[in-house]
Write a structure and sequence with these properties.
By secondary structure, this protein is mostly helical. About 60% of the residues lie in helices and about 5% in strands. The longest helix is centred in the middle third of the chain and has 22 residues, at about 445-465.
Length: about 775
Amino acid sequence: MGTPTKRGAPASFGAQLKALREVAGYTQEELATIAGLSVHAVSALERGERRRPHVETVRALSAALDLTGAARDAFVDVARTPADSAPVDGIGSVSLPLPLSALLGRESDLHTLRQWIADPAVRLITLTGPGGVGKTRLGLEIARGIATEAVTRVVFVPLAAIREPKFVAPAIGEALGLGDITPLDLPKRLRIACADRPTWLVLDNFEQVLDASPLVADLLSAVASLRLLATSRGALHVRGEREYSLGPLSLDVDPEAMSPADLAASPAIRLFLERVRDVQPEFRLTTANGHTVAALCRRLDALPLALELAAPWMKVLSADDLLGRLGRDVLPSTTAPRDLPERQQTMNATVAWSYQLLDESEQRAFRRFGALPGPFPLDAAAAVLAGRESASAGDEPLRAVAGLIDKSLLARAETSAVATCPLYQMLETVRSFAALELAASGERDDALEGLVRYCTEEASLATLGLVGPAQVEWLDRVREDLESYRAAVAWLIERGRPDEAVDIAWGLIWFWVIRGHVAEGLRWYEQALTLPSLPPGAEAKALLGAGMLWYTQGDLDRARSRLRRARAVGTGDMEIVAHTENILGHVEHAAGHMQAARDCFARSNDGFRALGIPWGTGHTLTAMAWVALESGDIGQAEGLLNEATSELRHAGPWFLSLMRYLRALVAVRRGHPDEAIAWVRESLTHIRQLHDKFAFVYVLVPLAAASALKGDDAWSARILGAQNALTETTGARVVDASATELQERVEREARARLGPERWAQAYAAGRKSSIDVLLKDIDRARA
């Protein structure tokens, strides 16, 4: 053409472009084809929706319109962004979506990601995480921060509606204003479009087109000035990728100890409250509802989407009602914001979106893992995958776990440093969906049969492990699997298979006692005893377990009743009989029947010696020393304690707790408070390692008595306050009559010397004490 623009031609680039196109006689479609652009891009430019076209776009249009000389220069000048214009990114047909609410609780994530972005060597960042965790929202916040610097161009590419990897290249081309793009020519076209200007591509919802990952690698190789930010439920797995796994919002709160203001500062609770106030402006967090609101946020895994979906229900339900409904079912959907994508209208739909992207074997594994209610090791995963069949020794479970982790449907569980093996866990909102799919598939019973087999085998190993030198490790191991044990036992009882349920529960007897789960163990034993057709062997174990736990709670009559029945039913099992005689001896001793206790302990000791069970022999010798001490024969008591210590050298450390307690009592009886305190300190060190609640209650008695001997009545009050708080929390209590008498005497005398006000103050402070505080007090006293 070569004809200059006429004087008086429209000043805006869009109007100029339209006028030139019409002079040339082109339709928008024809101009787009000649320039290699999309029709939408040309139309958007003419309408003024894109006011800052990239120089490559202007050059392509200028060539298509055959502009030369002054006409071309004028066309380019009009395309330049006016100095007073807003910084609008006009390269793509999709601008950054505007968030409708503030981003909450992501300060740490933003800080880390901005550091990565500041590093020019990091060219591909992938935000991964489960559905509803807020990947897109965080990605947009990052992208907007980059765009506001006006140095780097940001192009947003939405991929949620795309399922075929072959359509990713056209989607990127469309966002860049480039038409007729194929995966083969996109790198070259993009290199021209970006030239030397730094560009960030934001690829949102990449999870369903992961097979297009090689295209991303090609783009990064071809365009030096290009960097990418992807959001996806799974990593892209290309070289140079830096993956940032986005977790739920922080919910590190203690509703019992924190004020409403402190609770409201937690990111998860803050988000929930803001969404509640959108529909109920007068809602306030109080001491009365704070615990329930925190429980709601925890039940929703502190996932932003789940919190936003649940909050509107507070308009029609109380916090307690909503928590109850969530505990029984998945989140209802009728209040979901209509502007959310359909796949996010409910948490179920959000998880279903990920589930549909799995292949058949991954879907099966996902469903089966829904049978595992808490953190689980690889062996448990293998068991539910195998079902009724024996678990294979292959790597299928590992592949299944790795695949689901990669797609953000499973995560490595956060555990303490003492975790016995790697553990994995689904978010509860994810697991609820998996459990529904498991039931719908008809595979639930088969998966639970696998779980029962796993729990039965583990409980059988725990029977020995919990009394041996690896006792601490086994206590931790049982705790890690506790949710699985609960699910297996409950299902067996529901199915009328109490003997199998008792086998599992009996294997955990020392865990119930040591870790303060007495009420739970009792519930399983007593529930099994109510069912018909319980075989004698299982009945004897259930009776012994119940009797033992009733004793730890101080109910001697129920304990004696269960134990006598256990002795009668279990006559064919020498170990059960020896164990029963031992606990009966403790019951009689607590009741003050010393001769009956001595006889029971003697029979128990004979039985354990005949069976060659050192922990049993040593335990009964310690008990016999206790009786001797109560009878006033301190010399005999010390001799028996020495013999017991020798027998227990290869037993679990918990069995030495009673020995240390008795040695502390002996020191108190002899008037040697520092020796007693030393024994208590040693005991507390092991108790802390064991997380033992039962022995903890006992050992505080001689400690309080020793502090009284040293004249520190305020310390005695604090010790007794700590003991009382622990009894209230766990139900474990001192059932030794002489120890109770000693405790009451110490309290009575300390109260009298301190007076009501000072006693109450010290006692209240003690109720908040921990083992660490007690150990510091001991070290100060010894110094």
